[in-house]
Structure formats: C-alpha cells, structure tokens
Amino acid sequence: MASRSLSYTQLLGLLSFILLLFTTSSTAVRVGVILHKPSAPTLPVFREAPAFRNGDQCEADKIHIAMTLDTNYLRGTMAAVLSLLQHSTCPENLSFHFLSLPHFENDLFSSIKSTFPYLNFKIYTFDPNLVRSKISKSIRQALDQPLNYARIYLADIIPTSVDRIIYLDSDLVVVDDIEKLWHVEMEGKVVAAPEYCHANFTYYFTKAFWSDPELVKVLEGKRPCYFNTGVMVVDVGKWRRGMYTQKVEEWMTVQKQKRIYHLGSLPPFLLIFAGDIKAVDHRWNQHGLGGDNFEGKCRTLHPGPISLLHWSGKGKPWLRLDSRKPCIVDHLWAPYDLYRSSRHSLEE
C-alpha cells in the first residue's frame, strides 16, 4: 500500500490545530488552578472519650493549656488530651487553647467536639503568613511547617486575661496530674521547663555562630542549658511586656542571613532563654522517645519517675504501631489512642 503523505499546507494546518488544542487545554488548567478552592483534608475519625468530672475538692481555678491542631498530628493531639483528662484530679478545670491553620477550623471543631463533648476549648486561627517568610529550611521537613512556629505568637493570640499557660506538643501523653506542673513557682522567670545542663550546647548551632564574636556575646554570663520547647509553662504577661515574640523573630532574621542553626523553632528559644528559665523536674518531659531527627530509631526510657512521655524526634508512636514495627515505649502511648479503626484502645 502506498504511503499517504501530507502537503506543506496540510502540515501547517495540523500543527495549528494541535497548538490550538494545547493552548486551550493549558488555559483551562490554569483557570482551574486559579478557581480551585483549598479543601480541608479528610480527618481521621475518633471514638468518643469518657466524660471526666471534677472531684469534690476541686475549686474553680482554670488551668490553661495550649496545643496546635496539625491535621497530620491530630491523632497524637487527641491522645494527649485524653491523657490530660484521665490523670487530672479536676479535669473540668482544664481549658484548652488550640491553634489551627485557616480553612480547617470547622472540621477540627467538629472532630474535637464529637470526641470530647464536655471539653472546655477554643480554636484560634494562626496566620501562616506571619512566619512563612521567616522560616529557614531545617534538617527535617516537619520542623519547617508554620504551625511549628505558632508557639512564638501564642501570647499575641490568646485572650489578654490569660496570664499563664502550659504549652504542649502533640506527640506526648501526660501520666500525672497536670495541676502539679501548673502550680510551679516561676521565680520571676518567663519560661519554666525541664532543663539539661550536661547536653552538648555547641551541637545546636553552626560554626557561623560560634565564630562570630558579636553573636556569641548573647551567651556571656549565662550557663547555657538545653530545654525542649514542647513542654513549657509560660508567664504570658511577662512574655508580652518583654516583647519576646519580636526577640525570637530577630534571631530568625539573623538565621536567614547567616545560617547559625539547623533545628527549626528551638534554637531562637535557646539563644534567648537558655540559662535563664525556671528549671522543673525532668519527670515532666521524658523526651526523645521518637529517636533522632533522621532515622527515628527506638530509644529506652531514662531512669527515674515519669509524669510526661514525649515522642520528640522523627518516630511517632501511631505510625510505628500502624506499621506493626513499634518500639517498646510506643505501647505506653497506645492505651490513649482514640482512633476509631485502631486496635489499640482503652476498651481492650
């Protein structure tokens, strides 16, 4: 059969037709992207938690607790809230202040309300644009998310009537009465937290920091000790008056210019507060149970009494349990898991 060739005119016509299709298709795609509204992710479904009531000796004093509502960590948040209620002598005194990104508030409110019908809580919208341009890339992507920096702006978001608050990460469970931590004597400090003065402080900053005599001056006269910002009691009034949000932002600006650290939102806190916090018992942050920031390998518990278990690091207990490759310590988290399809529950 003789092959049928196209004339030059026919080729031009065909090419024009293809270009028209491509242009129309591309325009449609671009228009579609512009018009597409961001939709909230499908949230996991949780079982309703038991109702926890105050004992007869409870007074009306509120205990204010702040947490973020990251849709990727919601399962951890629910477990943390349950642990706080279950071990509290006066659970109805707990008042939760949740920080969420825009567009997700309604779905998150419904999820919390259906899981904890009696919970005293409020959700505040955190504008990621406050911090997005200030974030420098760190060693782990999860540390670069805007909500990870929301704690910096906490004092500006919650009501001015709140003068003290406990900030907690979402990857922990409390196995003691949180009122004990709430009543810590601040001794004039802005922040109270477990601190670790034998940690290698040089690890948290780069050579660019240690080789700059002007930057290093910030640590002069201090005994710089590490503390984990996932568990903090904050004097909100002193934070506001001392303009500490702006001070943290200033260090983030330096980081943008000189790359003086690798670890997300933690180092600016260390530069400002290390050696100048109220130290509380280590039992209130048994941290590092998620392993390091690279591999998340299993770790064992540190010796001594425990009031709070914290899976800081890459490995999260719900992910390791679901993968059927849990660490031994993950089984301590499992009883607080309210995820509906989870095999690990209080009912078992």
From TrEMBL:
Signal peptide: 1-28
UniProt-listed SUPFAM superfamilies: Nucleotide-diphospho-sugar transferases
Pathway(s) of this molecule: Glycan metabolism; pectin biosynthesis
Class of enzymatic activity (EC top level): transferase
Membrane topology designation: Single-pass type II membrane protein
Record's keyword terms, sorted: Cell wall biogenesis/degradation, Glycoprotein, Glycosyltransferase, Membrane, Signal, Signal-anchor, Transferase, Transmembrane, Transmembrane helix
GO annotation, cellular component aspect: endomembrane system
EC assignment: 2.4.1.-
Disulfide bond is among the record's keywords: no
Subcellular location, record wording: Endomembrane system
InterPro entries attached to this UniProt entry: Glyco_trans_8 (IPR002495), Glycosyltrans_8_dom-fam (IPR050748), Nucleotide-diphossugar_trans (IPR029044)
Any one GO BP annotation for this protein: cell wall organization
Keyword Membrane carried by entry: yes
GO MF entries: glycosyltransferase activity
Family: Belongs to the glycosyltransferase 8 family.
PANTHER family: GLYCOSYLTRANSFERASE 8 DOMAIN-CONTAINING PROTEIN (PTHR13778), HEXOSYLTRANSFERASE (PTHR13778:SF50)
Record's protein name: Hexosyltransferase
Organism: Brassica campestris (Field mustard)
